[in-house]
Structure formats: C-alpha cells, structure tokens
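Researcher: Next entry in the queue.
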Amino acid sequence: MNSISTTQLNIAYDDALIVEGLDMQIPCGKVTSIIGPNGCGKSTVLKAIGRIIKPKQGIVYLNGEDMKNLTTKDIATKMAILPQSPLAPSGLTVGELVAYGRFPHQKGFGKLTSEDKKIVSWALNVTKLKDLEFREVDTLSGGQRQRVWIAMALAQQTDLILLDEPTTYLDLCHQLEVLELLYDLNKTQGCTIVMVLHDLNLAARFSDYMIAVRSGKIIKHGTSKEVMTPAVLKEVFNIDATIVPDPNSGREVCITYNLINDNINKRERETA
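Model: Structure for this entry, 272 residues:
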C-alpha cells in the first residue's frame, strides 16, 4: 500500500511563501480530506505532494522514498492526481479518455494490450460508465464527467488517488454521487483517497481522517470527531459553529455558524 508524507515542506509561488515547515502524514487505506479557508494552501499542498509544483524546501516521501528520486512515470504507476475541473480534448469519448490511464504502464508505441483493455473495461464497470463508453465526454453532465476522470485514475492501477475539489460546480445529487463512488472505491478496492474539500459536512461524512489547515499550517488532524469541533473551526475559519451528530451517519454536522466578533450583524439580529 502506497503511503505519502512530508517533512519541513516549504511551498512558494515566486517570492510568496504559501506553506512553511509542513510535516504531514497521510494514513494508508483511508479517505482523508484537507479542509481550510480560501487561500490557506490546501490545493497548494495537494499539488506539491502530487508533484505538480516543486516545493521550495523539504521532502515529499512516497513509500518512504524521496519523490525527487522517482521518475514521473514511476510516480504515475503509484499515484493518480485529478486537478480542479480537468478538461478533456474536444471529441474524445469516455472509453478513450479512460484508456489514457494506461499510459504509464505502456511500452514501445503505446498500443493497448489485451490486459490494458481488460483494466479499462473494469474501470468503466466500477464507475458505472460502461453504457457511456462511446459517448463524447463533453456531452456528459458534470457528475458523469467527474466519474470519467475517476475511472481514468482507476485505470492507472494506483492505490493512491489525490483529488482537488472533486465536487466543484456539482449540484447536491452529483456531489453525493461522486463522493459515494470514492468512498466505495476505498472500501472495496482499498484505494487511499486524499481530497481537498470546501464543504465541511461532506468532508466529515465521507472521511476517515481530516486535516484542518490555516495559513499553510496544520491546525488539527484526526477523525471527524476530533476535527469537527467548535474550538477547531473557530481557529481555522474564525466562526462560532454549532456541531451536532448526523442522525443518519452519526458523523459530526455543522448546522449553523456565526462570524466571531461580528458585532454589527449581532446588533442587527437582536433588533430584527
């Protein structure tokens, strides 16, 4: 099982230091969500551990090995990463896009082998896309397109998948569709899932482990019960949150919240 961790990671865009001294361990075989306010460095961390951007300092380890010592193709056989709102070339079919996931494993001229085709077919079936195999990707709904990208990641045959905001621009139904698929893949296929999420309640519902980040630093990590607390959300988001157990899942849910020290709004509410 592939594992990933960081030691004293500094990440910067030009001269702007976004993340400083980050020590992080992603648990194997679990669903992990990274949460935090806009601009706190969530996506930046994901890009760094996925080697999309190069850290200014520090080490990212994959299976205990410094990722700088691994080739891009080596990494692609161990880890898949899906950025925010990925775009497929116009006219590409579902089956063709999913087949791209076999590229890291191909040799010579890159022709699909019978084994490659078998794996692509499996990925389409697992994600319930077999009936859409010959549809063009740009004709699909947002939720369907996200499933296609996840199927492509599965076709890579990695047991570590990183996703940056996989529910962006999706309605409530499609958000649940995508997250339930990822949760099921974790439980049935043993994939380690790491995702950046804005929705705290979805993160708590579908995650075994949560990492709360503010200003490029980890404020709290642990189970949803340990992270989804009024004290942690106050420190991370500057809100006064009311947390209750979800009657269906038993996980923590934020049912309402107010800005801390929002005296103007408080007076308006009291006089309304």
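Model: The longest strand covers residues 16-26.
Researcher: Noted, moving on.
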